[in-house]
Amino acid sequence: MMLREELDQKAQAVFLGVALGDALGATTEFMTPGEIQSQYKIHKKMRGGGWLGVKPGQVTDDTEMSLAISRAVLAKQGWDRQEVAERFLAWMRSKPIDIGATVRKGIRSYMRDGTLEVPCNDWDAGNGAAMRMAPVILFTLGDDRLLERCTLEQAHLTHNHPLSDAGCITLGRMVQAAMLGADRFQLHAMVRELIAEYPNFKFNNYKGHASGYIVETLQTVFHYFFGTGSFEECLVGVVNQGGDADTTGAIAGMLAGAFYGLDEAPRQWLKKLDSQVRAEIEQSAVKLLDLSPWVAEGSQIQELSGNLWEYHNQGYVVAITTNGKVARSGKNVMARGTARQAADRFPDLPLLLGEKINQFGNHVFDLGQRLVSFPVEHTPWEVPDLQLIRQSGEELRQLVDRNGWEKVVVPRPGCGGGGLSWGDVRPLLSPYFDERFRIIKAPVG
Ligand code: MN
Ligand code: MN
After folding, report:
1. Low-confidence residues of the chain, pLDDT below 70?
2. What pTM was estimated for this model as a whole?
3. Ion ligand 2 — residues with CB under 5 Å?
4. How many angstroms separate the alpha carbon of residue 251 from the centre of ligand 1?
5. How would you list the strands of the sheet with 437-440, edge to edge?
């Protein structure tokens, strides 16, 4: 499948995930797990009902506010927070089935005097800004600073609190990373970063509180996302926890959607989902992605043609794709591809790299003479390892940052003799490779 097609489906899965979680959770919103259990055993069907009395597959404010942001972005073909405020106002005037108190207060204050940023308030640590993140996540893909800016601007229309801000930004980064192929460990590391700054978000001792407080909402989402193995299991777990179930459902839906993709969403749920909402979401998700820097500018990875070593002569730092095998001689086995070319040019290299690997393991190392190792496989007779390639991308980025290098050229890792396709490798590296990086076709053999 084409990369763009795959990404379109991920985008649809993110946004549909919101609606599915919202519609599913509306049934159990404000119930306790005990009440849910005695009424449904396990709630896992689109059956409507709940305190709002929704129809099966009907969505609530979580999805509606997401659509309001989406319409604002698509109408302006870019970010305009006043337009977002206008759409929120129009939505409030349409007498929605449900509207949160903090949201109403924020929209009212825009209506009264055009306020685009409510003052910071302890009451604002609710989950109302996080639940509507999906469109922001999609249209800022590929630009972390844009994600941060638009996240805060949309959030502060109604919610202004450091915990909400931090939660929304982390959620946004996680969903984007999952869309681009991040694994559980990588996503978990992002949560740990959040916890390092705001220990409140710790969720390893989950107590089952699933309120509208952003901390408890995200704890619930993280608990079930990391503790389950499928889209369905994750959402079923969350909505059976009750509390603010439609909103924990919506947030879990966007994350699980990004991670598992559309094929994993239960057909029965999609079939029952409000068909107008579903159609708008499917179209908008792709259009939002069209506007994203990731798609509009291509990935920031730029590709070169020609000979790797000519770029070395021109002052580029060159990454050599390597394996982790050290022979009894103490030399790294550099038998193929760029590794072999490098060893021919720099005869001391195999011993130097062998020593580093023996001492520190199979990692990216500065080898001097503007050469760095870039592990793609553990031994020369194994196939390249995508997880190792991603890790090498991250390590190379850190090394480049530390050394202040300005131009680095990397042969398509694992794609020469290794036999991987560049379409599979590219999304793993694009989060790390910015304009300082160039990719060159890997030599075969
Ligand atoms: Mn709701
Ligand atoms: Mn809710």
Report:
1. 1-3, 297-300, 442-445
2. 0.72
3. 244, 246-247
4. 11
5. 302-304, 437-440, 408-411, 317-323, 371-377
